[in-house]
């Protein structure tokens, strides 16, 4: 019985999973759309949405929280100056996951993950 499983382990250690989420998040904030496997995209969605919610308020505590969570100064700047204010009025649902078929090599399900309010 698999009750109350909080998150996907993605067949990685906890430190590797944390690094993976950081790297995918930095890529998503930089490019605003990335292609990855479907389980990674679904797991990343909750991680990114918490960070975007935190970035809507640009204060000292938010900056410290984001720097600790991401460890990437450029991404933190873009979150606080661009992505956070862009989603100020949105109550949630900042990220969209779109299925994109299967990968040719191993038939893994692929997906696009993108920010809903994309800059033009």
UniProtKB/TrEMBL annotation:
PROSITE patterns: RIBOSOMAL_L17 (PS01167). NCBIfam families: L17 (TIGR00059). InterPro entries: Ribosomal_bL17, Ribosomal_bL17_CS, Ribosomal_bL17_sf. Belongs to the bacterial ribosomal protein bL17 family. PANTHER family: LARGE RIBOSOMAL SUBUNIT PROTEIN BL17M (PTHR14413:SF16), RIBOSOMAL PROTEIN L17 (PTHR14413). GO terms for cellular component: ribosome. Keywords: Ribonucleoprotein, Ribosomal protein. It holds the Pfam family Ribosomal_L17. This is Large ribosomal subunit protein bL17. Part of the 50S ribosomal subunit. Contacts protein L32.
